[in-house]
Amino acid sequence: MFAQRLRIPGPAAVLSAGAVLFGVLASGCSLPTDAPTNSAVQPSGSAQDAAAPSPVTPQLRFPNKDLTANLLGYDDNAHMVRFQLVRNVAGGPDDGHYETDPGDPGQHRLPLSAAPVVLSAASLCSTHDVTVDEHGTGTTPCTPQQLIDALRGRSVYARLHVDGADHIDRVSELYHP
Predict the structure, then answer these.
(1) What contacts 48, CB < 8 A, 6 or more positions away?
(2) Which of helix, strand or coil describes residue 27?
(3) Which of 136, 175, 169 minimizes the C-alpha distance to 66?
(4) Looking at residue 19, what is its pLDDT?
(5) What's the alpha-carbon Rg for the chain, to the nearest Å?
(6) Residue 149 — left, alpha, or beta (φ > 0 → left; ψ -120 to 50 → alpha)?
(7) pLDDT for 99
(8) Are 127 and 109 in contact (CB under 8 A)?
(9) DSSP letter string over 8-55?
(10) Tally of CB atoms within 10 A around 33
(11) Which of 79, 88, 83 is CA-nearest to residue 69?
């Protein structure tokens, strides 16, 4: 019955490929093997274009943010820093301590940027000196590899800056006695 290719007279009669195929198969007929898989061509900007899946873009979690975090380790397989958001709670014997942020208690992972700034207060670099600014954040420069090595053996409290691509571009260790 349908020995020829289906011809559609104009844009007003344009049907989706699925509707045409459904109609043909429901009537008990089959299309010839040389029939195109998309016999109904829609003009650009049509409803079919709007329904077409768009490329998936990754959702950024912390772009252009400053975070206070407990750095929990480094995932060598994914090349990402594991961390948990924390907040400073006043009081106690050390005049404050860090606890997990109750608004976001989960663990997160982000990669380091290509050239992150890493600043140690006492333990990231092996200088054994305490070097901090007026906010208690580290001032001794370290290499990214020193950060990664330090995170393999212990956790570290730090202030992080995350760039617009969701990469950690600054790590400043937080000093606490």
Answers:
(1) 16, 42
(2) coil
(3) 169
(4) 41
(5) 29
(6) alpha
(7) 94
(8) no
(9) --SGGG---HHHHHHHHHHTT----TTS-S--SPPPTTSHHHHHSPPP
(10) 5
(11) 83
* Contact in structure between 113 and 169 (CB atoms under 8 Å): yes
How far apart are the C-alpha atoms of 69 and 79, rounded to whole Å? 18
pTM, 2 dp: 0.67
Relative to beta strand 112-120, strand 168-173 is parallel
pLDDT of the residue at 164:
96
Q: What gap in Å lies between CA 176 and CA 156, rounded to an integer? A: 10
For residue 136, give the DSSP letter.
Answer: S
Q: What does the alpha-carbon distance between residue 14 and residue 138 come to, in Å, rounded to a whole number?
A: 66
3-state DSSP assignment of residue 100:
strand
**Is residue 110 pLDDT above 70, yes or no?**
yes
DSSP 63: T
**What is the Cα–Cα distance from 138 to 136, expressed in whole angstroms?**
7
Distance of alpha carbon 111 from alpha carbon 96, whole angstroms: 29
DSSP 12: G
- Coil, strand, or helix at residue 145? helix
Q: Which residue has the higher pLDDT, 169 or 41?
A: 169
**What is the rounded CA–CA span in Å between residue 72 and residue 34?**
59
> What is the H or E stretch that residue 147 is in?
helix 144-151
